[in-house]
């Protein structure tokens, strides 16, 4: 299965075998070059998934052991204009990285921010880049440490022209099949959608975690891990998060190796801020966020489950019980 495109709009692309594409002069297979900045847990796996799909990826990281180039200037030199560069760094250094990158790119190039930036930063950032003739696309990326194998759910914001030009990259990163990608709207929409996605994730994790705690304290249920495992098929609560909780319990049935301390990346807070701004009742997500705050004061089984889930899907650091 490959992607064939004509023009730059997302509606001008389709997937299929070479025999299905029609006349060669009408549809053209698109392999792309991409610069990728930040080769950590997700960025490094994204590089490998893109390369496996036939795209050329030039990666830069501050760690020379994983970097393909020594600096951003060399990265820009290795790409053929018009260039596309994906930034996958922590939110705290995203603006500085993009500003430095803009200094070595030129008119017609595109920068994609795939980190956990706040959506309200995207509009001003896009305007600054537009003054240089550089396009900007924001991409919410979900998939954690499993994305290389399973694909990444992508929520993208930007113009139709810029998103369409990048579709071969998005197609290679997303899971196979119909789902896993959305052009959510203009610049900022991708990170907004990812913010809401993460807020929902908070609520789902908290529900599983509270169920785990109740089972653990029950006088009747004597095999909690097996009970969780039984829900993985035939149950309306089956999900990938439940699978990961089962995996964590296989590794540590009582989660005794963990301290019930769950961090938050900020997106849950932003989601609740938006709920307040738009007067949307968001009891579950707000409660899940506050439970994480409470985890920093008490050591509960439920918050151990939340900490274990964050480690399982995202490789996030956990606090050992003896820490």
From TrEMBL:
| UniProt xrefs under SMART domains | 6PGD
Give the Low complexity compositional bias ranges. Answer: 1-17
The positions making up the signal sequence are: none
Q: Name one GO molecular function term.
A: oxidoreductase activity
Q: Keyword set for this entry?
A: Gluconate utilization, Oxidoreductase
Enzyme class, broadest EC rank:
oxidoreductase
Note one Pfam family from the annotation: 6PGD
Q: Which SUPFAM superfamilies match?
A: 6-phosphogluconate dehydrogenase C-terminal domain-like, NAD(P)-binding Rossmann-fold domains
InterPro entries the UniProt entry points to: 6-PGluconate_DH-like_C_sf, 6DGDH_YqeC, 6PGD_dom2, 6PGDH_C, 6PGDH_NADP-bd, NAD(P)-bd_dom_sf, Pgluconate_DH
Q: Which residue intervals make up region (Disordered)? A: 1-23
Reported EC number(s) for this entry are 1.1.1.343
Domain 6-phosphogluconate dehydrogenase C-terminal: residue ranges: 190-323
PANTHER family, per this entry? 6-PHOSPHOGLUCONATE DEHYDROGENASE (PTHR11811)
| Family membership noted in the UniProt record | Belongs to the 6-phosphogluconate dehydrogenase family.
Q: Name the chain's protein.
A: Phosphogluconate dehydrogenase (NAD(+)-dependent, decarboxylating)
UniProt source species: Plantactinospora siamensis
Name of the gene? gnd
